[in-house]
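Bumping with the actual sequence this time:
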Amino acid sequence: MKISSIELREIRLPLIHFFETSFGRTTERRIILARVVDRDGAEGWGECTCGEGPFYSDEWTETAWATLKDFLAPMVVNAEAENAAGVYDLMKRVRGHRMAKAAIETACWDLEAKRAGVPLWKYLGGVHTEIPCGVSIGIQDSPEQLIEKIDKDLAAGYQRIKIKIKPGWDLDIVRRVRERFPEIQLMGDANSAYTLSDIPLFKALDEFKLMMLEQPLAYDDMFDHAELQKQIATPVCLDESVKMPADARHAIALGACRIINVKLGRVGGHAQAKEVEQVARENKIPIWCGGMLEAGIGRAHNIAMATLAGFTLPGDVSASSRYWEEDIIEPPVTVSARGTIAASEKPGIGFEVNSKRIEQLTTRKETISS
């Protein structure tokens, strides 16, 4: 594989409804897209999933743009890689910046699958022809608003409900949700908002039979999570702490989690995600696909990843219409009445990129070529 040019674009895409976590509230996404073109003119698309500020991770839109433009894209353009799986190694000299790397790496996978005339999910080795879907519901202005949103998403068929929690919006909220919905698959996501001093709270949450508590402690911690897991019945799920396959091995060996959330950008792209999936599957640790408020290109890549064998729990991949008035792909992602998304049989990511829509949303553009 030899990439002759990489086109970067930043688009701004307003959310239909604000999304709030312990980090803050998001109303508009600033998303970097990467379009890679090979010497024969074939193209592939990827999406950088970092946030607008350095809160979920130390990557954010401005650092990702500069890193992509000044370092990563020049490392890939005109360099030889055996295949898409080898593109990550071309960028190895840059430490970290996995979300930026994933934008280019995933675009190369899309290109390679298109050239092979194969759907990306099959090209990756996926086995699930459809994936089960859950939703992630942010912190709301009131408990009543949260209950209303859960009602709506359950009516739409979603199989699992994840609610964001933070100090002051946790035990009483979970209690109210459980009283209203005693049988649903329910989980809480803390985004690192707590410490080991909150163990009494987590023990109290055991009563509500949650599927899991996602990343309750520090984003870079495994040891305290292992201690927490020893003391509570609810499975701990790691998110931010698992940035590479070695992290997954270490977390499992330490007993820091019983479940892992895999985010394509967080681990650096499809090749790395496949390795994390293998580690988890071999150790019988369930995994699922997390979300980062992706637009359609990132969402399509998530669908492909989530068809791998180890992804056995409903993920955060939901319909385009939950977030956007109009997505940047055609057709938009839709979810069946039973809460699933069918994997497309079309080559590559399985969706057409809406170039006109992207052009309308573009706020800056840069092309790196030989």
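The tokens above came from a reply further down the thread. Residues 45 and 324 are 19 Å apart (CA to CA).
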